[in-house]
Structures are given as C-alpha cells and as structure tokens.
Amino acid sequence: MILRDFAQDLTELCFHTPLASGRPLRWTIIANPTAGGFTIRSRWKKHQTALKNAREIAGKNPRRENAGPSQTAREGDGGSGELGSLGLIPTRAPGHAGKIVKALLDEAGSQTDSSFHLLITAGGDGTSLEALIPLFEASPILRSRFAILRLPMGTGNDGADAWELAQALDLLIFPTRIEGARAVRLTTRTPGKGPFLAFNILSVGLDAFVTHMTNKMKGKLPGDSYKLWVDIASLLYDRLYRVGPMEINAFDGTGRTVKSFREPLLLLAVGVSGHRTYGSHKRILPDDRNVCGVKQMPLLRKVALKGLFTAGGHIDKPESILFTADRVEFRGEYPILAQMDGEAVLLTPEDFPGTIELTEPVIPILKRSF
Length: 370
Fold this sequence. Notes:
Elements: H1 2-15, E1 25-31, H2 36-39, H3 41-58, E2 67-69, H4 71-76, H5 82-85, E3 88-90, H6 96-110, E4 116-123, H7 125-137, H8 140-143, E5 146-152, H9 165-173, E6 176-181, E7 184-187, E8 196-198, E9 201-205, H10 206-216, H11 225-240, E10 245-251, E11 257-271, E12 276-278, E13 282-285, E14 291-295, H12 299-305, H13 308-311, E15 320-323, E16 327-332, E17 336-340, E18 343-347, E19 354-358, E20 363-368
Helix pairs in contact: 1-3, 3-9, 6-7, 10-11
C-alpha cells in the first residue's frame, strides 16, 4: 500500500515535470521497501504530506503526452505488475539496484528515438551507491540520455539531492538544468582490489570502523546504531586497530603538491566537494575544503571532541587538518578500514600506497535553474 501510494504520487509528478521538455520521457523509480522513510511511521507520514503538496503544485504545469514508465520498470517490479505500471521497482536484495540500472542502460542503448530517462532512487545511501556505479561506468553517449534524482528515503541520506523530501521533489516540479557531478575513487597497489567509488565521501580510519560495525549489526540493535558505534569507537577503536603514522601527499588538479605530512591519524575523509556530511548529517566537511584529517589524541580528548563533528566545530581544533585537494596519496604501517558512502573494505599494508582522487564530473544530476 505504501509503495503503491508513493509510486502514484511520483507518477503524477513525472507527468508534469518540465525536465527534458520536447523529448519523450521515461522514468524508473528504484525503491528500497525496507528503508526508514517507508517503514518508520512518523517519517512516512511526513513524506506523504510532502508528496501530496508537491503533486498539487506540479498539477499547475502542463501534462506531458509522450511520457511514461520505462520498459525496464514495467517488466521488473517482481509482483503483480501494478508497481511496474507506475514505474517503480522494489529492490529485493543487496545489489539489486545496480542490476536494475544495468538493464535500464541496455534499454536506453537499444532505443531508436530521442527518449530521455529519469532515474529516481528512493532509499538510503546504499541504494544510491548501487545505482550510481553502473551509471558512472556507462559510456558518455548513454549517460547523456539520463538524469538521476536521489530522494532521501533512508535512515542515512547524506548522498541524496536534498536532506528533506520536499526540497528534492522541487527538482521535478520547477525548471532544472542537468549538471555533471564528480565521484571519489580509491585505488590500491594490489591488482584486482578496487577501484572503489563513492559519490559523497570516501574515508579511512575510525569512521570507516563505525560504518563497518553499523552494517554488521544492522537490524540487530534498536535505535540509531550509527550513533551507538560512534560512542563505542571513541573508546575502543585504537585498541582494535593500531593507529600509527600515515604519510599523506596531496595534489591539486595540475599535480602541484598542496599538502604533505606524516602524522598518526584517526581518520582521513575526502569528499567530492566541501560542505559534505556523513553518518546522517555529521558535518565532517562543513566549509569549502574537501579533505579532513583528524590526528590521534588521548581518550578523554576524543570524548570531549566527539560531539563537535555534528555541527562542524572540530575544524577549529588543533587535531584537525583541513585542506582542498584533487588527489590524496596515503601510506600506513597497519591495516585500516575504508568506507565508500557507507560500504566498508579492509586495507592492509600490502595495498599501500592508496590513492583517493576526484573523477571527472560525469554523473548527470538535477540542479534548480534560477
């Protein structure tokens, strides 16, 4: 019932969107039915209100005649076909979102008309990440037929196109432009290990440990398990993972060195830009700078600074190292976890040096036109 109502409202918005006017429009909604925006009653009620309000405003736009769900959506909902007829496919297992996008790219690659594809993800950062990777890997010609809109329907929505659903839906209602967004790519020395992609923040260290444990215990602990593991990590991280000196060399887009140092680091975070959050809106990159390192510190100091990351107050502390870079090379002496938009992997000394770098701006996202 909830997914059907959600799909019906989005269908009306798609019929009235000014996006790619003059071209046939095909939309596909990839929804994670277990995402908190659907399963937490208070959140769904709030989202329902936002959808109804958006539908009323969008109704003032002309209704498109040559528009409808993609063939991939119509054939792939895995149920009675009702959701597919509205353009929505529920994800059924990890990795399903990526398979849907690959099928959609095949559909777009075989089309003979000028149809434009609107891809909408409705879930958390994991759903978004899965959908974006095959889109990133597609040819430029295929990507030129797409735009993606990431709705904040999960418990963690740091990679969504807006923190609130109402603001994200505005991108369907009002005139927009399509803009290329970058990814962050991690490569290692080990053949076949990587590359790994993130579309918000890629980091190594304590926060990746929090991500790893949150994912491992997901569904087994009540409440905000990410916050719980932040608290635990403050106490236990450097007892489980040895924190040793890391050699950091950072470069701008021309290859010029912008930062070089050797410090014991608790974490190193690189965003596709500044003004980025993770861990459900923790302001790790609160200004224009896209790289943040945090030095190792005594336990009591960790406890004292932990709360500052929510509001970005850590950037004025001597333990923080912030700068702007296009490429960061790092090398350490001990195993360390890395996380890519909420997915974790263990790096060992054999994988170093590792490189975290910005890619070209290739992901077609929507931006308001003013």
